[in-house]
Amino acid sequence: MAELTTIARPYAKAAFDFAVEKQAVESWAEMLGFAALVSENDTMRPLLAGSMASCALAKLFIDVCGEQLNEHGQNLVKVMAENGRLEVLPAVSQLFAEYRLEWAKEVEADVVSATELTEAQKQQISVSLEKRLARKVKLNCSVDAGLIAGVIIKAGDLVIDGSVRGKLARLSDKLQS
């Protein structure tokens, strides 16, 4: 995966810089997301890894994407096809999304709780994280009854384990040492 990221980074950065310059970050995110889905398609994947001529491959890819790609998106596909890099489009899309979140001063936080959170609890978690991270926070909430009680919050490199299961594990480690 690290190699794909290394290959994808210049394309993602160039696309992101262009999108910011043209004030079209959201439309570029949608285009790249769609192109990534096309490149991961079971029918398309073997063609990307095959020996098809780059111009024919780019034309086929653009035809499949249709109206989803504007002129500049089509140019990116052509350049990536010429360099044999269309298979890294999912990584390009992922990196672009990360650049977009950083640019918008946003962060996604995964919140796993033992029970469904109320809107008030979600709001409280969101406000607390926004203060701590100095960013706008988007919560992705899920339920895991195995936590017994409490929540686990993951936002970038930050992990807050306030679950009973986590507390019991830490207590067990202290007792064993």
UniProtKB/TrEMBL annotation:
One matching Pfam family: OSCP
Name of the gene this protein is made from: atpH
Function: This protein is part of the stalk that links CF(0) to CF(1). It either transmits conformational changes from CF(0) to CF(1) or is implicated in proton conduction.
Keywords: ATP synthesis, Cell membrane, CF(1), Hydrogen ion transport, Ion transport, Membrane, Transport
Name of the protein: ATP synthase subunit delta
Main location: membrane
Membrane topology: Peripheral membrane protein
Membrane-crossing segments per the record: none
Subcellular location: Cell membrane; Membrane
Family stated for the protein in its record: Belongs to the ATPase delta chain family.
